[in-house]
């Protein structure tokens, strides 16, 4: 479990199937990540549970610390076809514009680099997904290459651990 100033990220499980379906039912939310039927959500959540068991990481349900309400999802996802770990974020529309995706994304990157010792973390973003591009850029990620994901072109943003460490050192120096 990861806790930030305003959020709690806990591993997504099969118990989250109704939330998963509801989160992705909004056309504004699912325009880039797709909607989920019950069967598709159950399959996805089983895969997430398998990832936690095999790799020690996966996607999380993001809850508000203030209310305990599930407001989105974030976490790390292994992409076998790319041989890379991706940080992702998706939030219910009523929680957009509050900095939650950046807060969760920053916590996920810190976790991936500092606890899991990953060397690089990516974000696969479809063209036109300007809010996710803005989050990736706020997190220090830069576009590295183009790929195809689920039959559609996407841009792979990335941040290397050395870049994250250098940015943290510069921020610490600026504070002193």
Task: Sum this structure up briefly.
The chain has 176 residues and is α+β, with helices and mostly antiparallel strands. The protein has 6 helices and 8 strands, in the order ββαααβββαβαββα.
Sheet having the most strands: 5 strands, antiparallel
- CATH fold description: Aminopeptidase
Q: Which regions have little confidence, pLDDT < 50, spanning 5+ residues?
A: none
The counted number of beta strands is: 8
CATH architecture descriptor: 3-Layer(aba) Sandwich
Strand content: 25-35%
Q: How confident overall, as mean pLDDT? A: 92
Oligomer: single chain
CATH superfamily: Gcn5-related N-acetyltransferase (GNAT)
**In order across it, which strands form the biggest sheet?**
1-2-3-4-5
Backbone structural class: alpha+beta
- State the shape: globular
Order of helices and strands: EEHHHEEEHEHEEH
Residues in helices, as a percent range: 40-55%
Distance from N terminus to C terminus (CA atoms, Å) equals 31 Å
Molecular structure report:
The chain has one domain (2-175): Aminopeptidase (3-Layer(aba) Sandwich), CATH 3.40.630. With 176 residues, it is α+β, with helices and mostly antiparallel strands. The model has no long low-confidence stretch (mean pLDDT 92). Strand 3 and strand 4 (70-79) form a beta hairpin. The protein is built from 6 helices and 8 strands.
